[in-house]
Amino acid sequence: MVFTDSSANVRSWKATSRCASLAKRNTLSTLSAAQLTRWISTASNSPREQNGVGGKDGGGGGGGGGGGGGGGCGSGNGSGAVQSFLPLPPSGSTNTQAHDTCVSLFVMSLRLTTAAEDRVHRSAAERKKKIKYSAVRSQERWIWKWNKDFLSRDSADEKRATFDSSRLNSTRLDSTQGVSHP
Fold first, then answer.
1. How far apart are CA 148 and CA 141, in angstroms?
2. What confidence score (pLDDT) does residue 84 get?
3. Contacts by 72-79 with C-beta closer than 8 Å and gap 24+?
4. Mean pLDDT in each 10-residue stretch from start to end of the chain (182 residues)?
5. Running DSSP on this structure, what letter comes out for residue 82?
6. Residue 16 φ then ψ, to 5°
7. How far apart are CA 110 and CA 118, in angstroms?
8. How far is it, in rounded angstroms, from Cα 109 to Cα 85?
9. Cα–Cα distance list, 132 to 124, 138, 146 (Å)
10. With 0-12 CB in 10 A as exposed, 13-18 as middle and 19+ as buried, what is 6?
11. Are the C-beta atoms of 71 and 104 separated by less than 8 Å?
12. What ranges does the record list as Polar residues composition bias (predicted)?
C-alpha cells in the first residue's frame, strides 16, 4: 500500500479505520445480513447522490441515486455525499474496498446511534407524559373528593336546617293548642 498524501490525510484515514472497526465490533454482531445490506444501501439520502453524483469507480452509484457498486455506499472514490465528511484513502492507495467498508460501517454506526437516541428521547417523552397524566388524574381525584365532601356537608346542613324548621313549626303549633314541649 502506497501513501503519497499528507500525513494529516493519513492520520484521518487511520482514524476512520479505527472508527469503522469500533463500529464493526459494536454493531455487526447484532445485525442480520439482510439488515446490514438494507442499512448500507440506504446509508445516504443526500441530493448529491440522488442526482447521481458519486459511485464513478463502482459503476453503480452514478445514476442510481446513491447506490454504488454492489455495496450501497459506492465503491472506489464515488460514494457521493458520504465523502464530504469521511476522508478518502490516501491517493495512491489501492485499498479502496477497505475504505468503502469503513464508509459503510461508519454510516451504519451513525444510524444505529441516531436510532438509539430516538428511542431514549421517545421513552423520556412517554415517561413525562405518564407523569403529567398521573398528576392530572390525581388532581381530578382530589377535586372530585373535595366536591363530594362539600356537597355532603351542604346536604347535612340542609337536613339540619329542615329538621330545625320542622321542629320550630311543631313547637309553634303545639303552643297555639296549649301544649308546650320543652
1. 10
2. 38
3. 72/37, 72/40, 72/41, 72/42, 72/43, 72/104, 73/40, 73/43, 73/44, 73/100, 73/103, 73/104, 73/107, 74/49, 74/100, 74/103, 75/100, 76/100, 78/54, 79/44, 79/54, 79/55, 79/103
4. 45 53 50 52 40 36 36 36 43 56 67 72 80 79 76 66 62 54 50
5. G
6. -65, -40
7. 12
8. 14
9. 12, 10, 21
10. exposed
11. yes
12. 40-49, 163-182
Q: What angle do CA 163, 168, 169 make, to 5 degrees?
A: 100
Q: What is the DSSP letter of 83?
A: G
Spell out the alpha helix ranges (H) of the chain. Answer: 7-27, 33-41, 47-50, 96-176
Q: How far apart are CA 26 and CA 101, in angstroms?
A: 15
Q: Give pLDDT, residue 98.
A: 57
Task: Please report where in the chains the cell 479505520 appears, as a residue.
Answer: 17
What's the sign of the alpha-carbon dihedral 46, 48, 54, 55?
Answer: positive
79 and 68 Cβ atoms separated by less than 8 Å: yes
